[in-house]
Write a structure and sequence with these properties.
By secondary structure, the chain is of the alpha/beta class. The chain folds into two domains: 62 residues, Roll (2,3-Dihydroxybiphenyl 1,2-Dioxygenase, domain 1); 54 residues, 2,3-Dihydroxybiphenyl 1,2-Dioxygenase, domain 1 (Roll). The protein is 16% helix and 37% strand. It has two helices and eight strands; from the N terminus they run E-H-E-E-E-E-H-E-E-E. It has a four-stranded mixed β-sheet, with helices on one face. It has a four-stranded mixed β-sheet with strand order 5-8-7-6, covered by helices on one side. The longest helix is centred in the N-terminal third of the chain and has 11 residues. The relative contact order is 0.19. Keywords: Metal-binding.
Length: 129
């Protein structure tokens, strides 16, 4: 069996680099590890960490094709982040004009969660720990 140790990173391609960079850093609170402009690809690569852990590579490319991103579409369903206070997190997102779905309760764990989207419509989840 393959001996995986952990998820190293998640790669996301965005349509509007500056808007997505602001969303992931100023709204979600990721810190910038490294930002590189790759001239040959006309592309930025932004390495982001959450609480000191490298987690997301944010890419920009000229004219990336759209992708179906509803939660029930084939492929990546959503990214989920743990929070300790879901009501506080939802209230913060609302101050940043980020709409969220109504809070639901997981039928199996009895934990509360909600969904929202990044600037490109990538489904994101907040799950109360």
């Amino acid at each position: 069996m393959l001996q995986l140790t952990h998820v190293h990173h998640i790669a996301i391609i965005c349509a509007d680099y500056e808007r997505s960079k602001a969303f992931y850093t100023e709204v979600l609170g990721f810190s910038v590890v490294q930002e590189v402009y790759r001239e040959a690809r006309q592309s930025y690569k932004l390495d982001l960490a959450l609480n000191g852990q490298y987690l997301i590579e944010l890419f920009s490319f000229p004219n990336p094709p759209e992708r179906v991103s509803q939660p029930e579409a084939r492929g990546l369903r959503h990214l989920a982040f743990s929070v300790t206070d879901l009501d506080e997190a939802v209230a913060f997102l609302q101050t940043k004009q980020v709409p969220t779905e109504p809070i639901r309760v997981d039928a199996h764990t009895q934990k509360r969660f909600t969904f929202f989207a990044d600037p490109d419509g990538l489904p994101l989840e907040l799950y109360e720990a």
